[in-house]
Design goal:
Layout (H helix, E strand, L loop, with lengths): L11 E7 L8 E7 L17 H14 L2 E7 L1 H7 L1 H14 L7 E5 L11 E4 L7 H24 L5 H4 L5 H10 L22
Parallel strand pairs: 1-4, 4-5
Antiparallel strand pairs: 1-2, 2-3
Length: 200
């Protein structure tokens, strides 16, 4: 794990998103800026951590970061502009909400759009390579999970507590049985092809 992309960047912001493949709920992005002297060997790609470790590291990251932010883009916007553009919009919103303006942006993946003329670099699998991106992945994941867990209390039949909106068999069975909610992404394939004849 690299701690920073370039030691000469004073305020290097790592950025990542969570929830792109979900059938319901927002896509969520986070941006994190650490002090150049900060080190934490436990911060890693959120997918490689247990839920307990993610939640513990969330508290550590939010305490240690010079600045951090989380932003959401709701399903109705995802349906209008597509999930890629919505993911980038969420990252832009997160970056725009930072209390410190970054002088360089590190982005997980290979797609991004310029933000306020700030230099940036996309890194494939960056959440497993750079600490600030990994930290952003943890914040995006934990904040989104907390958000959709609250939605579960309103719509328990979809099992969002466990699937977080992703296309599990139980989630799709509930869509077939109960229909969709305002939190579902209508532009996504909510049911397998053989069930698409259902009127959603």
């Amino acid at each position: 794990m690299y701690f920073f992309y370039d030691k000469y960047n004073k305020y290097e912001a790592g950025c990542d998103e969570a929830g792109r493949g979900s059938l319901a709920g927002p896509v969520t992005a986070a941006a994190v800026i650490f002090d150049s002297k900060y080190r934490n060997k436990w911060i890693n790609d959120s997918k490689k951590l247990s839920e307990r470790d993610r939640n513990e590291l969330r508290l550590e990251i939010e305490e240690a970061a010079l600045s951090w932010s989380v932003a959401f883009v709701e399903p109705e916007i995802i349906d209008k502009i597509n999930i890629l553009n919505a993911s980038i919009l969420a990252m832009h919103r997160a970056l725009d909400s930072l209390k410190i303006r970054p002088d360089f942006i590190l982005v997980d993946g290979n797609r991004f759009k310029p933000f306020k003329n700030i230099p940036f670099k996309t890194i494939i699998k960056g959440d497993g390579k750079y600490m600030s991106i990994a930290a952003a992945s943890i914040l995006a994941k934990t904040h989104r999970d907390a958000y959709i867990t609250k939605l579960h209390n309103e719509f328990p039949q979809y099992d969002w507590l466990n699937n977080k909106g992703y296309p599990t068999a139980k989630h799709r069975e509930a869509i077939a049985k109960y229909g969709i909610t305002i939190h579902h992404r209508k532009s996504f394939n909510l049911l397998p092809p053989e069930q698409l004849k259902l009127d959603l």
